[in-house]
Amino acid sequence: MVRYLAKKYYVNSLVFFVGFIIFPYLTFGDLPYLFPRAVFLGSLAGSVYTWYDFRNRNLWPLFDNLRHSKFLLLGLMFLSLQLIPQIVNPFL
Amino acid sequence: MKQPQPLVLDSIFYSVPALKILSGAYLEIHPGKISALIGLNGSGKSTLLKIAAGQIKASSGITKMNGERFYSKSLKKRFRSIGYLPQESMLPGDVKVTNLTDCFPPENSVRNDSFFKKLMNQKVKTLSGGERRFLEISLLFSLNRDYFLLDEPFSGVEPYIIERIIDRIRTETQRKRGVLLTDHMHRYVSDVADDGYLLHNRQCYKLGNDVAGELKKIGYLR
Known about the structure:
The structure holds 2 protein chains of 2 kinds. Chain A is mostly helical. Helices cover 84% and strands 0% of the residues of chain A. Chain A contains 4 helices and no strands. The relative contact order of chain A is 0.19. Helix content of chain B is 31%, strand content 27%. Chain B is built from 8 helices and 10 strands. Chains A and B meet through helix 3 of A and helix 2 of B.
């Protein structure tokens, strides 16, 4: 189930990331400045969206039954994405 | 060995801005017994189960097990002791049954059950309502919990599968696990229950061992 949550979370975050980077990039064009901000906002929006999506689909009780802390898992996944700008930005 | 004690919900109050749902509800679930929670639509049965399972917080009230209080902020203990089957399916539709069973303890009976063998490579969304419900219940019972709260386990399920679910519940209570179930299919519920509660006027009234007889006596059943 953790893998399932991770898959959904990272896909949602990617979609939001693309949304947050395309328009500002076409407007300002400063990729090293925009990239970490888009990652942060994308992963934040991904967390919120995934939370509500799982709540609407009534999946959180399954995580509770399996004793997987939803806050901890989403928090760790969010933090894991914050490493990407650290790795990628020097090459931009 | 320490004798397991009942799970107690005491003085449970719950309200939403426009409506009082529970006012001092009291309920006991004993290990090795099946308790029924019966009430009209909208009487607060599912709310009470959700409070007991830690899905929502009561406005006030106490939940105790083995004399130890479960605080509403600390859900760890609650999740360690209580398994909860919500009214609506909690399984993701886009996952294969075999992948789902891998998430549960390896000794779960789903893998060995002939009923599920042909379903293993199907996605959950392709299962019928009854198959899905039976799968949920079987997976839930594979968890090492003391108490199980089942919210409408029989609704939308064919009689053959209901009989299997009832057998499964009886097997689990023989292992000294306590079960609280609520459902509108009174025939099945009263057949299987050792004792029961009627949720009426936002409070729980204890019914005797003959749940069906008592419900007839008070005019709840004909």
